[in-house]
Amino acid sequence: MRPLSLLALMATLTACSPAPQEVGLRNTEAPISSNASFDAARFADVWHVAATYGDEARCGPLAETWVPTGPAAYRVTGTACGPRGARAFASEARVTGPGRITRGGEELWVLWVDADYRVAVVGTPSGRFARVMSRTPTVRPDLMEAARRVLQFNGYDPAGLRAI
After folding, report:
1. H or E stretch at 14
2. pTM of the model
């Protein structure tokens, strides 16, 4: 085959290739489910970010306070990880379905909460975000193991989870 023909063939095949998909924290082909028995009233109050993925873990202790502002709404304040470290934030959140909360334009899914609402696993179907939240800065080992298994069941790689 002549070099010019080979080059044309390669260009044609490249044009037919699917665009690379954005890599997230979870396998988006794995099923994901939100907690159908989620209780919005019990979710209110202070949550510490106990473990998370990616850059967020570098910022040190992070916490959020969820204050009910209506039957399916919260005012959320706390600390978040920004480009220059931890920073204060305030936002509104609305329950949009069982275990589904829209905050800042993003749909967060409560994947699991233990029976006493001490630990929660929150993620996104896109896989862009996931974290383990706790009422206290530290999580009992058995509850952290349960949270890791929930993340794995929902397509996340628990090996990437970092404690804060």
Report:
1. helix 3-16
2. 0.84
